[in-house]
Amino acid sequence: MTAIRLLLVDDDPLVRAGLSFMMGGADDIEIVGEAADGGEAEALVDRTRPDVVLMDLRMPVVDGLTATERLRARRDAPQVVVLTTFHADEQVLRALRAGAAGFVLKDTPPAEILAAVRKVAAGDPVLSPTVTRQLMRHAVGTAVDTRRRSARERVAALNDREREVAVAVGRGLSNAEIATGLFMSVATVKTHVSRVLAKLDLNNRVQIALLAYDAGLLEEGQEGA
């Protein structure tokens, strides 16, 4: 089994030490580096090529949000899991829009943090539909109408089947569940998901869910539990 290459980014050396001790004890995880701010993280990504970056958001010099945006814009971008102390926070939402695969609270039990790293390394998001809705409801204010118009313009590029798949992804359904609900094979679902990502210039399922919500495709009564 190839170990998951993990980079730890947090400005608190005690937090980094705790994470390193906790994560480094797993047989399938290799700690390839530690950074105290986003700038250091970017340099270490160049040298160590991690699969996953566990990224604190609030750091001096270069914060975690800026670093996440820069890392996820790369051609061979690592997966990013955001570390935060808040459930519904504007910075968390912005990090997810930038391509982070999910977030974990700093007081999350060690086993759950390990599970989150393993999930994103396998290409799966670590956000439940319930958490996604909580985050979306946090995003209120004058920018909402503008964001909805922009989102609707983007999803107009999808055909009807692709839109159905995007809505199902937004509801948090797995490929197998989507296949059953839409009467298609799992392979076909994967193809549609790939086309949705390409057409909308997105890079993971979390971003599909956020855009579907922004566009109003997920009505209250249609959302998954």
Structural features, described:
The protein is α/β, with parallel strands linked by helices. It contains eleven helices and five strands. It has helices spanning 13-24, 38-48, 64-72, 90-97, 110-121, 129-138, 143-155, 160-170, 175-182, 186-200, 205-214; strands at residues 4-9, 29-35, 52-56, 79-84, 102-105. Strands 2-1-3-4-5 form a five-stranded parallel beta sheet, with helices on both faces. Strand 4 (79-84), helix 4 (90-97) and strand 5 (102-105) form a beta-alpha-beta unit. Helix 3 packs parallel to helix 4 (90-97). The chain is globular and about 50 Å long. The two termini are 34 Å apart. The model is unreliable at 220-225 (pLDDT under 50).
